[in-house]
Fold this sequence. Notes:
The chain has two domains: 1-30; 33-126, Flavocytochrome C3, Chain A (Flavocytochrome C3, Chain A, domain 2), CATH 1.10.1130. It is 22% helix and 0% strand. It has helices at 3-26, 79-82, 87-90. It is extended. The mean pLDDT is 82. It binds heme C (2 copies). One heme C (HEC) binds next to helix 2.
Amino acid sequence: MNKSLVLGGVLLLGLLGGTLVRAADSAEKLRGDGDIWTSSDVVQWQDRDPIPRDYVQQPPMVPHTIEGYTVNIKVNKCLTCHSWANYKEKNATKISQTHFSDREGNALANVSARRYWCTQCHAPQANAAPLVENQFQPLPAISNR
Ligand code: HEC
Ligand code: HEC
């Protein structure tokens, strides 16, 4: 084989290898930044205190990251901490009574289907500028800032 071809091949391999290693270094891990021994049950706080609500009946904002918290028809990671069965042990806020009634107001024994998809209403925090400027002020009666 031609010497320069071999040399070219080796160079190409070297370049490819380097790129792959760098990609692996910068890739975000699915389970977050914690090492493999850190339990996914350790809450990663973004804002340790409950975030003040801006209007009556606002779904409270999520004060921790929710990355990797699966919610689908089989599992609901949120409920492993926030359900009435688990909240004490996990030191989390229990979901309120309203999450147990159907749209006719009947009390159910379990979380209502319309309150099952938690992130439909409860938004996590992002360090980003507001998309739209606004001058919204909470009602003085609930303003606790
Ligand atoms: C590993 C346990 C855990 C999981 C899983 C979890 N949370 Fe939490 N969450 C907590 C704890 C602990 C708090 C803080 C309670 C406190 O302030 O005392 C909290 C606080 C909250 C609050 C704020 C309540 C308030 O009154 O301000 C909301 C909303 C919330 N979580 C929503 C969610 C949602 C939605 C999910 C799923 C996407 C989720 N959480 C998954 C542990 C968890
Ligand atoms: C349709 C919107 C909606 C969905 C879906 C929903 N919530 Fe809520 N959530 C609210 C609203 C509104 C409040 C505040 C008023 C109230 O308690 O109903 C609230 C309150 C809470 C609170 C604070 C309770 C307290 O006593 O301060 C927690 C914790 C919570 N929700 C967790 C969850 C979790 C976990 C899920 C998914 C299983 C979920 N929510 C699904 C609207 C929603």
